[in-house]
Amino acid sequence: MVAKKYLNQVGMGRASKYWLLISINSVGKRCCDELTESKEFFLQQFPGFVEQENIPERDIQRQLMQLYSHDVNLQQLALGCLRCFISNEIKTICEALTQKFGQTHDFTIEEILPLVLDSHQIPFSQTQSLTTKILETFDPEKSNLSTWTNRILKSDRTVKQFLLEHGIEQVTDWMILNYTTAGNLARILSDYQHTQIEIDQALRLLDSYHQVYRTHLLQIRRTGAKSRYPEPTFEQLRQIGDLCQQITSPEEIREHLQNLARLLREERIRARRGLPRLELLADDIQIIVPQKYDQPSAFLADYQQKFDQCLFKSADLVIHARFEYLQGKNSIRSLKKAKKYIKALHLFHCGGVSMTEIASKLDLTDQPEVSRLLELKNLRNDIGRNTLSCLLKCVMEISQEYVTPYKLLDLESKIQAILEEEIQTVIEQARIDASTGAQQVIKNQLAQAICRYLCTRIEIRERT
Q1: Could you tell me the residue ranges of all domains in the chain?
Q2: Rounded CA gap, 123 and 121, in Å?
Q3: Single pTM value for the model
Q4: Which of 10, 224, 259, 288 has a CA-to-CA distance to 179 between 20 and 30 Å?
Q5: pLDDT for residue 460
Q6: pLDDT at residue 209, as a whole number
Q7: Which residues pair with 119 in a beta bridge?
Q8: What's the pLDDT score for residue 303?
Q9: Measured distance CA(117)–CA(138) in Å, rounded
Q10: pLDDT exceeding 90 applies to what percent of the chain?
Q11: Which 3 state secondary structure label does DSSP give 287?
Q12: Is there a contact between 155 and 130 (Cβ–Cβ < 8 Å)?
């Protein structure tokens, strides 16, 4: 049955959120359908709520979750009501995000909804959607479904990436400053051509902020307050000004801190978009070698190709060295272990197979034995170091014909710092994905390079 347009119709009441399902149709547009069975079921279970604006949401959700989890006969009906409610909450959250950021960051609600709503065409039982994740993790004894949906949606990787691509990172200025190190700030300011005097002043301000703000933050948390990174008080700002010996008002100290945070936020967004500080490097390269790169984008395209090549070569070098080490003196036991190492790498990085399953497939004792065999931390770090060496050589070769040796040394130091951060971003993402789950592993750049090498290795062996 085709439903009413949206929830804000007169007389529908809040209860209608439990039988109106908002989804995405075959052409990527949102639609709203009234689920007749869900409506009849809800009215039977919770009579008298149809026209009410204030209904006991927590009690309703607790009962629906109980039926969904423990009553086989009513499970699907309860699921229908829960899905409807979640879909309406998702729409409301996306409307709020669009109202807050859409106009200034150039996106509409129709762009974000397809990322988070279920497809109208695909049966719910066949999806691994945001709704599924919300239901699987929701505990009605600890939270209400509105709050939990909001939390899961805003922490979703796809949503965060979408917002980042539009220049939005939802953390406070005070949290950014709290976690910024002096070395990181100095490097960023240097990249943005700040003078040494300006850098020194900023470092004193940051150090004073840390001394005052972190002390007060610890005191606040000891009281059990929920605010994670509150705005500094007038008194805190005054103390910060006194410590850094800047004769300015608390309002000016706040402005200086927010200006620093704004710069750091821009840098964080750039880094999470996948090309941290490479735009700056591309501009430098264009100036130094205009004969080779007429636009920064030309350098970035060339650079990305070289990055992929270096990552692949490094995976080859490191895995081959590990394989040779495990073979030892070519004993039967050593050869078997070396072969299991390659197979385990392939299953983990190419197939997204968990270490527990790998242990079973390769006749190993348990997950810890697989972990010891793979030594993923060492593998990632070794590949990272070799990639840096390879990539630095490639980038410097571009420049050495066009600059003096003195300028080349200065450029090399700057390039190395940028490349180290770029590679560390890839390595850290691989670590995070590995801790999240085996299926997530296969999506990251490092795993894809390892998998490409392993598949090439297997193909060569099959030919010989």
Answers
A1: 14-165, 173-273, 282-463
A2: 7
A3: 0.48
A4: 224
A5: 52
A6: 93
A7: 24
A8: 75
A9: 17
A10: 31
A11: helix
A12: no
**Cβ–Cβ < 8 Å for 392, 310:** no
pLDDT of residue 408: 63
All residue ranges of the chain with pLDDT < 50 are: 1-11, 275-276, 462-464
Instruction: Sort 310 into a burial class: Cβ within 10 Å, 0-12 / 13-18 / 19+.
Output: buried
Output the six-digit token pair for 66.
């109980």
CA distance 5 to 206: 52
CA atoms within 13 A on the CB side of 297: 0
H-run or E-run covering 357: helix 355-361
> Left, alpha or beta for 423 (phi > 0: left; psi -120 to 50: alpha)?
alpha
Buried b (16+ CB within 10 A) or exposed e, 150-162: bebbeebeebbeb
End-to-end CA distance of the chain: 62
Q: Could you tell me the two tokens for 221?
A: 């948390």
* Contact partners, residue 266, CB within 8 Å, separation at least 6: none
What tokens appear for 70 in the block? 């423990």
Cβ neighbourhood burial of 246 (10 Å; 0-12, 13-18, 19+) = middle
